[in-house]
Specification:
The chain has 328 residues and is of the alpha/beta class. It has two domains: 217 residues, 3-Layer(aba) Sandwich (Rossmann fold), CATH 3.40.50; 105 residues. It contains eleven helices and ten strands. 29% of the residues are buried.
């Protein structure tokens, strides 16, 4: 069984990279999702399947799906030639480079059967490299799903453990854009704790356990009306979110300036003992200032950066309070 062959292909860094470890999920994708896509392609006399892995990380999920799909196509002995293309994207450029290289340590393949390993990977010392035979089907590229245009005429989109990093209004836009990108009866695969939210009219749940949805056709009139309503709601919610974030950034700037002033005063008053405090305060200040710059420039991960910044601010404030308490 292919799911057994591939169950340890991925390193255990996230559920999206581990999903082929689960035989039930793998079998469902193979026997329901890929079979459904292939049936539709044959009915339409089309010869290419198009997939998009949005948030591909370092590529384990991408290659796993590519191998799973290729093995499934070959097992059917189709008279009609069938090819496939996978768009694999991620916001992080370094992850995209790693994924594109397709090089993984040998311990990631301990339980992969030799026939699959030899067919799709070349051994290079203590690493395995993805063969051109499977690599040629994949296009890797940096991409921000919240800002950049999506791909079109897709049969399958996997976007696992990514939506949770966006604001609710952005999540709604992304889900709507996925619906637009998918062909009729196309599939959407989300992470364990993600859903299509209020857009249940756009997607039918094929398997709620695995968060696999199928595109539903929506009347153009309703879609247009919904789009207008959501646009008004989105603008209102976005304005509030932006103002909240602006207020937090203003507060953070004031707090870091206040802390900087306190540190300078401590340096003057307690120069002999300042070095011990500097060790605890210097790097947090640089870190916090760096996060402030990142948050101002990027729309992605704002809440996560802000959260990390506030943690460091609290640490720094406590350090100064403890220092002053000891001195007095």
């Amino acid at each position: 069984m292919l799911s057994q062959n591939l169950k340890d292909l991925n390193q255990p860094s996230s559920s999206a990279e581990e999903f082929l470890r689960n035989n039930e999920l793998t079998d469902f994708i193979q026997n329901n999702v890929f079979s459904g896509i292939l049936k539709k392609k044959l009915e339409l006399c089309e010869s290419e399947i198009r997939l998009w892995i949005a948030g591909c990380s370092t590529g384990q999920e991408v290659y796993s799906l590519a191998i799973l799909l290729k093995e499934h196509i070959e097992s059917l002995n189709l008279e009609q030639e069938m090819d496939f293309k996978i768009y694999a994207t991620d916001l992080d450029y370094d992850s995209v480079k790693i994924a594109g290289a397709g090089v993984y340590p040998d311990y990631a393949f301990e339980n992969v059967l030799p026939n699959i390993l030899n067919k799709y990977f070349d051994k290079r010392q203590e690493f395995y490299v993805v063969k051109k035979e499977i690599r040629k089907h994949i296009i890797f590229a940096p991409h921000n799903i919240a800002k950049d245009p999506g791909f079109h005429h897709l049969d399958f989109i996997s976007c696992r453990n990514v939506l949770n990093y966006f604001q609710p209004t952005q999540q709604q836009k992304i889900i709507s854009s996925f619906h637009h990108s998918l062909n009729e009866d196309g599939y959407l695969f989300l992470g364990q704790f993600e859903t299509v939210g209020e857009f249940k009219e756009l997607f039918h749940a094929e398997n709620l356990r695995w968060k696999i949805y199928k595109k539903q056709l929506v009347a153009e009139r309703n879609r247009s009306q919904d789009a207008g309503l959501h646009a008004i709601q989105d603008r209102s919610a976005e304005d509030k979110e932006k103002q909240d974030l602006k207020d937090k950034l203003t507060e953070a700037n004031e707090r870091i300036n206040s802390l900087q002033t306190k540190l300078e005063q401590i340096h003057m008053d307690y120069e002999g003992k300042y070095e011990s405090l500097k060790i605890d305060s210097y790097h947090p200040i640089l870190f916090i200032k760096g996060l402030l710059q990142i948050i101002k420039k990027q729309e992605f991960y704002k809440e996560e950066y802000a959260g990390a910044m506030l943690i460091e601010l609290r640490k720094l404030e406590h350090t100064i309070e403890d220092f002053m308490r000891d001195e007095h």
